[in-house]
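Troubleshooting: if your tokenizer reports a length mismatch, compare your output against this known-good record of 269 residues.
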Amino acid sequence: MTVAEMKERKTQLGYTNEMISELSGVPLSTVQKIFAGVTEKPRYETLKAIESILNITPGGASRVGEEAFSYMAKKQGEYTVEDYFKIPDERRVELIDGVIYDMTAPFSVHQMIQGEIYFTISTFIKKNGGKCIAGIPPFDVLLNAGRHDENRTMVQPDVIVVCDRRKVTRARIEGAPDFVVEILSPSTKKKDAFIKLHKYEDAGVREYWMVDPDKKKIIIYVFDREEDDIYPTIYGFSDKVPVAIFDNKCEVDFAEIYEGIKFLYEDEE
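Known-good structure output:
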């Protein structure tokens, strides 16, 4: 889809620049520059993110193969894992408390941070002969496995560590991981910072990281069942961040990560 076609589709849908920014995760200033013609050669990833939103009808179904989504007839809050498995693989979603959440394609900065975190933790586990398993999607996590509400939630965190191998099956992870990372975007920030925060704590996740590429912050919760109040620790992209479940012996060097990705921030200055 060309920029001209995007403009026409934007008009058809009645979308504002603010709506496109919120839904796609592309910064508002970047969206404005593209549609105003200021940015002559937008990045490929940016165009694909905007295109993915403009290819969606107001009802939420793709224009291509809309009949495939005819089963999505329930009210939000009523969907189950059975409904989740009926959704085509090309449509990335999560199921949380019976609500289906669409997942937009991640930006390159998201994927690069994700890969570096996974590599550091996976390498640490292997070097120390650990039994824990690190993973990155695509994979399903049946977060509340074994509970009465297990069929209402299925998530796909950005990075996980599971230390109880009995939770790892060929099909999915069944039960709470020990460690979870979510990399925030404008379209997922509220879900990750509020809904998932409480879901992960309630399910028994021991440590939860939220990485905010826009603010260059890492917000960390270490859930201690003996404490009533849980407060986050906040680091920046100039810090080495310790992994608490490994007694702080494993550190993710965000200064090194940022050195490798800072070129991706140049067009947003």
